[in-house]
Design brief:
It is a single chain. This protein is 70% helix and 3% strand. By secondary structure, the chain is mainly alpha-helical. The protein folds into two domains: 64 residues, Orthogonal Bundle (Arc Repressor Mutant, subunit A); 181 residues, Up-down Bundle (Four Helix Bundle (Hemerythrin (Met), subunit A)). A two-stranded antiparallel ribbon has the order 1-2.
C-alpha cells in the first residue's frame, strides 16, 4: 500500500486505502484483511489510526471485527442505511411518508414478476404463514413477524436478496421510535384478510387485481403513518410553526395518495 501523510482527513484516507486493498486483491466476503500492525506499517500511520478507521468501516458494514480472529470482509449489506434511517426519522419523521411512497412503487412494480414466477408450493408456504398469523391475531398476540414474513416470502421467488433487504429497511422505518406512538393494528384480523385477498389474486395469476389489492393494503399503513407523523411533528415543532407543519403533512399525504392511485 502507498504510505499516507498525516492530516485532518487521515481517517478517511485510511478507509479508502483499506477498501482499495479489498477490491485490488479481489477479496470476498469472509476473507481476512492484513493484521492491524501490518496495515499501520504499510501506510506509515499509527496502529491507533488504523483501529479508528477499521471501526468506521465496521459501522458502514464493510468489514467485521472478530476478536481473536481478525478483520474480515463483510458481504454486501444495507447496515449503514438501516442506521441512518433509524436516526434520521427521530428528528424528521415526515420522511416516513416519502419512504412509504417508495415502498409502494417498489412492491407494486415487483408484484407482476412475482405473479409469473411464484410456484404453487411457495404459495402454500405463504398460506401456512397466514394461518399462524390469523391464530395469533385472534388471540391479540403480536403479529409483526408474520406480516414481515409474508412480504419476504412473496418476493423470495424473484431471487433478489437486495429487494428483500430493502423491504426490511421499510420495517426499520415503520418501527422507528417516532412511529411507535401510533400503537398496534386496531383491526388485525382485517389485516390478515387483506393479505389473504392479495394472495388469492396472486394464485389466480391476475396481475392487475394483485396490484390493486397491494395498494389497498397500503392504505391502512398510510393512515397509521400519517397519524404517527402528526404526533411526532407536533411534539418537535414550536407552536408558531403549526401552520407550516400542517402544510408539510398535507403534502406528504397527497404524495402517498398519488402513489396509491
Amino acid at each position: 500500500m502507498e504510505r499516507l501523510t498525516r492530516g485532518p482527513l487521515l481517517n478517511r484516507a485510511i478507509q479508502d486505502k483499506v477498501k482499495q486493498y479489498v477490491t485490488d486483491n479481489r477479496l470476498e466476503a469472509g476473507d481476512l484483511l492484513p493484521p492491524e500492525g501490518q496495515l499501520a506499517a504499510d501506510l506509515g500511520v499509527s496502529r491507533g489510526s488504523v483501529r479508528e478507521a477499521i471501526k468506521a468501516l465496521e459501522s458502514l458494514g464493510i468489514v467485521e471485527v472478530r476478536h481473536g480472529d481478525g478483520v474480515r470482509v463483510r458481504a454486501f449489506n444495507f447496515d449503514s442505511v438501516f442506521d441512518f434511517l433509524s436516526y434520521g426519522l427521530v428528528f424528521q419523521p415526515s420522511k416516513a411518508a416519502e419512504m412509504l411512497q417508495v415502498r409502494i412503487w417498489l412492491e407494486v412494480a415487483a408484484l407482476e414478476e412475482v405473479v409469473h414466477r411464484i410456484t404453487d408450493r411457495e404459495l402454500d408456504q405463504i398460506e401456512a404463514l397466514l394461518a399462524v398469523w390469523e391464530t395469533k391475531a385472534a388471540a391479540n398476540e403480536p403479529t409483526s413477524d408474520e406480516d414481515r414474513g409474508f412480504h419476504r416470502l412473496l418476493y423470495t421467488p424473484l431471487g433478489n436478496e437486495s429487494l428483500i433487504s430493502l423491504t426490511d429497511i421499510f420495517w426499520v422505518i415503520y418501527h422507528a421510535l417516532p412511529l411507535q406512538k401510533i400503537g398496534s393494528d386496531r383491526q388485525p384480523l382485517a389485516t390478515v384478510q387483506a393479505h389473504r385477498d392479495l394472495l388469492a389474486a396472486v394464485r389466480a395469476r391476475d396481475v392487475d387485481l394483485a396490484k390493486q389489492r397491494m395498494r389497498d393494503h397500503f392504505r391502512n399503513i398510510e393512515t397509521r403513518i400519517t397519524q404517527a407523523i402528526q404526533l411526532s411533528e407536533a411534539e418537535l415543532a414550536p407552536s408558531k410553526d403549526k401552520t407550516c407543519l400542517n402544510s408539510r403533512l398535507t403534502r406528504c399525504a397527497r404524495s402517498v395518495a398519488k402513489a396509491l392511485r
